[in-house]
Amino acid sequence: MSDGTADDTTMRVDPQRAQVLVENISSVLQKIESVANGRKVRLIAVSKLKPANDILALHRSPHKIVHFGENYAQELTEKASLLPRSIKWHMIGALQTNKCKPLAEQVPNLWCVSSVDSVKKANALEKGRAALAEKQDLPEKLRVQAQINTSGEEEKSGVEPKDALALCKHIRDDCPHLQLAGLMTIGAIARSKASTPETENEDFVALRETRDQVAKELGINEADLELGMGMSSDFEAAIRQGSDEVRVGTTIFGERPAKKDAEVKAAVAGEK
């Protein structure tokens, strides 16, 4: 795992590309600030299928971006081995149960897994982090978010709102190496497109109400459970509705190709 020293000298960052990335993320940060009303909202730069040197460019920029999100466990693991340990990685894509333990064990600076939608996945992440803790001191627990399917779409991952409490309670009570950080959702695209500054997205409302109920049942403050909602197309609306973190990819990095194994490897290597 890299400590960041070699990266600054061996990984080439194209100055023109870096400038474009900085301009793009500056615009996103300004938009976040304009609608956050003083609240602290975390920006996760979604870097899937984008080269490691793009990530390094933003990490070394004046903004010092530290939170990056990946959709594929293999790509996250490989990029983490190349890039500075000061990066905080977010696993935001659907994660197979059999990949949970290796990911949690192999990436010390995996900061959050945002796609936990079953007790089995939580248990596998717990086993991985416990195994890593036996090898080295970990400064903090691995944060996880319970993924909630607020839209009811079959193709979307996540537990139904009515099952959120049981999952959250299990993570909190039975996974000592994990921290229940909050709840997240990916809303229906149609609802995101229909949302305006004057209207609320039904999926975001549903997540907020689910979070409030879970917090009440667990006997904790609502503020102790973050809301993760909002992407490139709807992050401003999500912030207005209380989101604590947003995921923005194409607005920062540009369009990406469809995922293929060869493209993942090329992206990691900085060939695309």
From TrEMBL:
InterPro entries for the chain: Ala_racemase_N, PLP-binding_barrel, PyrdxlP_homeostasis
Keywords: Pyridoxal phosphate
Cofactor: pyridoxal 5'-phosphate
Post-translational modification N6-(pyridoxal phosphate)lysine, affected residues: K48
Residue span, Alanine racemase N-terminal domain: 24-257
Gene3D superfamilies the UniProt entry points to: Alanine racemase
UniProt-recorded Gene Ontology molecular function terms: pyridoxal phosphate binding
Similarity remark: Belongs to the pyridoxal phosphate-binding protein YggS/PROSC family.
Function per UniProt: Pyridoxal 5'-phosphate (PLP)-binding protein, which may be involved in intracellular homeostatic regulation of pyridoxal 5'-phosphate (PLP), the active form of vitamin B6.
PANTHER family: PROLINE SYNTHETASE CO-TRANSCRIBED BACTERIAL HOMOLOG PROTEIN, PYRIDOXAL PHOSPHATE HOMEOSTASIS PROTEIN
Protein name per its UniProtKB record: Pyridoxal phosphate homeostasis protein
Protein source organism: Cryoendolithus antarcticus
Origin organism lineage: Eukaryota, Fungi, Dikarya, Ascomycota, Pezizomycotina
